Amino acid sequence: MEAQQQGFQDFLIDTSGKVRSLEGRYNLLRDRVLLINNNMVGEYKKVLAEMKLMNDELKEVKKEVFNTKETMKHLISELERTARKEDFKLLEKYINLWNPMHFVSEADVLKIVEQALRDQKKS
After folding, report:
1. In angstroms, rounded to a whole number, what is the distance separating the alpha carbons of residues 24 and 21?
2. Where do the structural domains in the chain lie, given as residue ranges?
3. How many whole angstroms separate alpha carbon 73 and alpha carbon 79?
4. Whole-Å CA distances, 71 to 3, 35, 42, 61, 64
């Protein structure tokens, strides 16, 4: 019976050692999982912060694009109301035809008439 007791004690010691070894591995794995979990939470927060920053930048870019489009629309509408080259050519043609450099003022006409009257009286 003593041999059985000795065998049983050896079995208990062996089993107890295995259990302690398994507990050690379990504790090590638990610590690693907690560390990984903490790292993941930290990375998650960092990713969320970066995403928020990117969303804010995207909103700003969209706002700038919208403002640029509105400015371009305004410029296009202003350009549509300006005179074209053909319009200037037509105006140039009429100005050259009328030749406003030969126009006289009312005072000039009065002087010419007075001069003509004086010349007629002299003759």
Report:
1. 5
2. 1-82, 87-123
3. 10
4. 99, 54, 43, 15, 10
- pLDDT given for residue 100 in this prediction: 66
Place of tokens 């790292």: 39
CA distances from residue 5 to 1, 10, 20 in whole angstroms, order as listed: 6, 8, 22
Residue type, 11: F
Taking the C-alpha atoms of residue 71 and residue 64, their distance in angstroms, rounded to an integer, is 10
Q: Tell whether pTM > 0.85.
A: no
Tokens standing for 81?
């109301």
90 DSSP 8-state letter: H
Distances, alpha carbon 36 to alpha carbons 6, 29, 41, 80, in Å? 44, 10, 9, 64
For residue 64, the number of C-alpha atoms closer than 13 Å in the C-beta half-sphere is 6
Question: Is pLDDT above 80 for 120?
Answer: yes
29-67 residue pLDDT tens = 999 999 999 999 999 999 999 999 999 999 999 999 999
The per-residue DSSP string of 60-81 comes to: HHHHHHHHHHHHHHHHHHHHHT
